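User: quick one
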Amino acid sequence: MKLNILILLLFFTIFQSKADQIYELIKIPNLKIYQIDKENNLRYLTPKKDFVTNSGINNVSCKKSNNYKVEKKYIKTKNEFNIFKKEFFEKIKLKYIVLCEELKVGEINALGFANPEMETILLNINTNDDDFERVIHHEVFHIVENNYKKFFPDTVWAKFNNPNFYYSGSSTNPEAYSLVKLSNTNGFFSEYAKYSISEDMAETFSFINSRKKYVSEVINLDKILNKKVIFIKEGMLNIKKSL
Amino acid sequence: MLTKIKQSKSEKILLIFLILLAIFAFSSFVLIKNKCLFVENVKIDKLTFENRENIVVMNVNCGNVIIELLPKVSPNAVARFKNMIANKEYDDVAFHRVVENFLVQAGDLEFGKKGSINYTYIGSGKSKYSLIKPEKGKPFDFKKGSVGFAKSKNGDMEDSEFFILLSDAPLFEGEYTPLGNVTHGFAALTKIKSGNKSEYVLRPDFINSLRMLPEISN
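Assistant: Done. Structure below.
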């Protein structure tokens, strides 16, 4: 009897409900509409229940959260996104924001995840407010970069760093993923910026948008960061020109 | 002398059981099998339309479905749809993708035709016409009964496949090109065969015919 119940449960677990408009659009099951922002056309979604989905080579999982937490982070998220115009999101192809808890990408805890193909950003609402603000801009850049790589060539960026520097790539050390600003920048805003060119650019973009005062100070002291900030600003200006 | 024998209690129970069994057998083989039994067939001659040139009559297993096309919202897509209807392209084409209570999708002219259906590639076929660009810019409320062009497999373009919504989908606004709305016969759409586990249907239902109203009336 117990075996029968287990088989039945397994059956329902394997065949998750996928029959809805959101799955149709972004291939993530178990989501519901939280808000549709008519001003910038962003659609905010939350899980009805926990989900696991496949995004490229990674499995992405995230959990349902309570309404209070979602509302709090929704307001924060909306404020951050409101610094951009509707035309900007249309141009970079960003439409869906998923607010959920305990986000994991390939079994690794993550604060955010951008899926440019599905025009979606997933945000882990368990993130503290300071980091959360930075994560939003970080993930926005990944969407930007995916659609406008021509304005952000790796070859130019790589030359900004010291010749003996190599990006770390994947690491087992959790510190390597830290978003905390470095006291000794030496060309990088955070430890995570040393991971790859793409993350370095995303961190720079994130600091430019969320730590304006700090950036204006630090670029006077760090020539590498100065070049990186100018590079990102020029790239964004090129996108705006093409709007 | 004949004497009347009274039924025993057990004989009465047996008789009732046999009657119930007969009713059950009849329902199973006749009533339940006929999925269209409670679907009212739309009779076109009893309806009046303002824009007859934009009315499409789709005949499916359970009767007629009337669709009003919206050329003011999506002029190119509607023109394309009308052109394919005029060439009878959609006749005998499968509803190859059915998501229960959400949408039905048809229009694979390459792999979805009755008699030459290809289950391996169905949903990825092309028509003989060129791809067209989506018209997603104008506001449109995608709700139950809305008809839209599906995106082609090779990118953000459209070909011949279309879907009809069985429930509201506000997020589809700006994602798909609207073609029109079902005005009559929605119940017939809800009876279209769906797959058991998959969205793609094995031995699917077909569009019997798809015609513009003036063509039928003439």
